[in-house]
From TrEMBL:
It catalyses: nitric oxide + Fe(III)-[cytochrome c] + H2O = Fe(II)-[cytochrome c] + nitrite + 2 H(+). Its EC number is 1.7.2.1. This is Copper-containing nitrite reductase. Its cofactor is Cu(+); Cu(2+). Belongs to the multicopper oxidase family. It is an enzyme of class 1 (oxidoreductase). Homotrimer. Pfam families: Cu-oxidase_2, Cu-oxidase_3. Keywords: Copper, Metal-binding, Oxidoreductase, Repeat. Residues 54-172, 211-305 form the Plastocyanin-like domain. InterPro entries: Cu-oxidase-like_N, Cu-oxidase_C, Cu-oxidase_fam, Cupredoxin, NO2-reductase_Cu, TAT_signal.
Length: 365
């Protein structure tokens, strides 16, 4: 080995040691190995140009409960936007509804692109109803678990009309622990108000009286299990889109690695993770305890469907090893959708990735 490459390695080891200092205590306790940072070949930034729509539709959230939504590309949650740090996004959005809307790209700095921030009357205009359009252009200058949402009459449009979707920016320099992840799941938490379900333009603040709650647009038991196998390293990306959650997972500790897309200085083990309105938390879980395990919000009101329990923000992790055929298992006959938590979509490369499973029923106009 010559001196130059040795010096390079020493330098790299120094960087690795810095990361390891941050992570080692928790990672060691947790059974992960903190490897030295690897050099990552720089990738040329790409430009992702795509079209989006806002459509009037009916979303079935729970048995007996449908609501009017303004759905990005006809689906709730809106389609996954998945890019890499440093890529460029050019999204042309056409508004096919009777309301006015924007897209705010929550978390982006919008350096030199402030007019694409989506705050109406402040840095741009809302997109006109009945076919108006706007193009948002910006560089993905933030990384991690971001999201997008409308910024018009937020208590209605974001609060109870489903105007939100995930925006994942892969970091150029992922932490060693991120490279261990074998399964990615995105969970977007929201509330609904059946009193205003049929009236897009109800006058009262509709987010003040929520009586249904959902993960990715469906209340328990109409949502889906997360299927894993022993040895999986599961990342849950938690999005408090329109309700705050105290997310609890049975049988495991979760390592909180990122808040709002950014690595936390001291990753922390927790069995309950609070995510305030608008925030995101990434947690990584070592799947080492085969069984069937609930995960749920610990705000008790959120565990009901208009008062009926169990319901709302509740789900189940199913280990393959234990199967699902106990006759008393309440989800034994569930039809399984492997993309309900965007797991398959996250493997499909970059750009705008739609999910047919989240399509709402188009409204007749
Ligand atoms: Cu809107």
């Amino acid at each position: 080995m010559n001196d130059i490459s040795r010096r390079g390695l020493v330098k790299l080891a120094g960087i690795g040691a810095a990361v390891a200092t941050q992570l080692s205590a928790t990672e060691t306790a947790y059974g992960f190995t903190a490897g030295a940072s690897e050099t990552i070949a720089p990738v040329a930034p790409q430009t992702h140009k795509f079209n989006m729509t806002v459509e009037e539709a009916r979303l079935s959230v729970s048995r007996g409960f449908e609501t009017n939504v303004w759905a990005y590309n006809g689906q709730v949650p809106g389609p996954l936007i998945h890019v890499r740090e440093g890529d460029f996004v050019e999204a042309t959005v056409t508004n096919k509804t009777k309301g006015v809307h924007t897209i705010h790209w929550h978390g982006m700095w919008q350096t030199n692109s402030w007019r694409s921030d989506g705050a109406p009357g402040i840095n741009g205009l809302a997109i006109e109803s009945g076919g108006g359009s706007n193009t948002y252009s910006f560089k993905a200058d933030r990384k991690g678990s971001l999201w997008y949402h409308c910024h018009v009459e937020v208590p209605n449009h974001v609060g109870v009309r489903g105007m939100w979707g995930p925006l994942i920016v892969d970091p150029a320099d992922p932490l060693p622990i991120e490279k261990e992840v074998t399964k990615d799941c995105l969970l977007m938490f929201s509330g609904w108000n059946s009193d205003v379900a049929d009236d897009y333009f109800a006058q009262e603040d509709p987010s003040g009286h929520l009586n249904y709650f959902s993960i990715n647009g469906k209340s328990f038991p109409y949502n889906q299990p997360i299927r894993v196998k022993e040895g999986d390293v599961l990342r849950l990306r938690l999005f408090a889109a329109s309700v705050a959650v105290s997310f609890h997972l049975h049988g495991h500790d979760m390592l909180v690695t990122h808040r709002d897309g950014m690595p936390v200085p001291y990753p922390q083990l927790a069995d309950t993770v609070h995510v305030a309105m608008g925030q995101r938390a990434d947690v990584i879980v070592h799947m080492n305890n085969p069984g069937r395990w609930p995960f749920h919000d610990h705000a008790d009101h959120h565990l009901s469907n208009n008062g009926d329990t169990p319901g709302g923000l509740f789900g189940i992790i199913e280990y393959e090893e234990v199967g699902i055929d106990d006759p008393w298992y309440l989800w034994a006959h569930k039809k399984y959708d492997p993309d309900f938590y965007f797991t398959e979509s996250m493997k499909k490369g970059y750009g705008l990735i739609t999910q047919s499973g989240f399509k709402a029923t188009p409204s007749k106009s």
